Amino acid sequence: MLIDCKSIAQSIDSETLSFVQKSLVKPKLVSITVKPDQSTISYLRSQQKKAQSLGIDFEIIDLEDNSLLEKSLIKVSQDKSIHGIFVAHPLPAGVDEMRIAELIKADKDIEGRNPLNLGYLAYGIEDFAPCTAMAVVTILSSVTNLVGKNVVIIGRSTTVGLPVSIMLLRRDRSATVIVCHSKTKDIPSITKRADVIVVAVGKAGFLTPEMVCDGSVVIDVGINVVDGKIFGDVDKSVQEKAHVTPVPGGVGIVTTSILMNRVAKNAFRGDMT
Ligand SMILES: NC(=O)c1ccc[n+]([C@@H]2O[C@H](COP(=O)([O-])OP(=O)(O)OC[C@H]3O[C@@H](n4cnc5c(N)ncnc54)[C@H](OP(=O)(O)O)[C@@H]3O)[C@@H](O)[C@H]2O)c1
After folding, report:
1. What is the whole-number distance in angstroms between the Cα of residue 273 and the centre of ligand 1?
2. Which is deepest, 38, 89, 233, 259, by most CB within 10 Å?
3. Atom 28 (ligand 1): residue with closest C-alpha?
4. Helix (H) / strand (E) containing 41
5. CATH tag, 131-251
6. Contact 93, 38 (CB under 8 A)
7. pLDDT interval class at 37 (50, 70, 90)
């Protein structure tokens, strides 16, 4: 059973369109990249397509090397005509990720990487929560009531697993959360008891049917390219037992819609000083 993420993305897009229409200025997103690889180029292309469809201006700043990254971030952070900043990851070797995240002005940080925005998350403020984590929580909230549910998250990155765990503990969601990682023992015995499983590991087909109980909800965050094809972290056959988000066409499309929504909301609010 596949979870319909397209309709979730569409409903976010309709809200975005209404912000774009009501806004006094045209929303603008800038994506910064340093020597992008093929998967980054295709991700930026999909951002461009989505931005165009929603009436959002989109600019790619493709830098020759790391040394220009800090200067470029300071410039776009100060530019009042820019409402959202995206920095393509992974960053090249040698770049201090946290320093770069700090330089993205917190209220233009549509991806939710600035440590300040991660701090707000602990207080339940999710305006700039990490966008993939926000996509996971948005999908979950649309398919199930999370209160009291046993949720197992596999992966503890600052962009996905960790923020999802914080967000699911918020009192209005009140899930019971277990976070697994590479040192966790006997993951199948933990996932088999879960109502909800979020998999963000980065290993194609990691979650298999034996690890899942019938009727559970499974969110597949993984994007793995194998022989030129995209696979999630969840084995296809899990769909026979559980409600699963597709890859592609799942968490990824909801994430892009959330990114654009934040840009449009910022433009609508105005005052990007
Ligand atoms: N759809 C989207 O929009 C989107 C956005 C972001 C990422 N992604 C995808 O999501 C996946 C995860 O991304 P990420 O940035 O969170 O990755 P990451 O930073 O590499 O983190 C991977 C996590 O998985 C854990 N892990 C690795 N092997 C494991 C194992 N055998 N058993 C249990 N846990 C294991 C790691 O544990 P340790 O902490 O112990 O090392 C780590 O916490 C990737 O495929 C990525 O491409 C998708």
Report:
1. 35
2. 259
3. 182
4. helix 38-54
5. 3.40.50.720
6. no
7. confident
* Cα(187) to centroid(ligand 1), Å: 15
- pLDDT per residue over 236-258, tens digit each? 999 999 999 999 999 999 999 99
Q: Which of 113, 181, 257, 259 to mutate to test the pocket of ligand 1 (most atoms within 8 A of CB)?
A: 181
The CA 154 to ligand 1 mean position distance, Å, reads 8
Those residues whose C-beta lies under 8 Å from the C-beta of residue 67, and which sit 6 or more positions away, are: none
Side-chain half-sphere CA neighbours of 41 within 13 A: 4
Residue 273 predicted with pLDDT over 60: no
User: Quick one: how far is CA 82 from the chain centroid?
Assistant: 21
How far apart (Å, rounded) are the C-alpha atoms in residues 37 and 40?
5
The helix/strand/coil state of 229 is strand
Q: Which residues line ligand 1 (CB under 6 A)?
A: 132, 154-157, 159-161, 180-184, 200-203, 221-224, 251-252, 255
Pick the atom of ligand 1 nearest to 184's CA.
33
Alpha carbons 205 and 163: distance in angstroms, whole number:
23
199, 154 in Cβ contact below 8 A? yes
For residues 111 and 263, the answer to whether their CB atoms sit within 8 Å is no
Q: Where are the domains of the chain?
A: 5-107+253-265, 131-251
Give, in words, the CATH class of 5-107+253-265.
alpha beta
N-term to C-term CA, the chain: 47
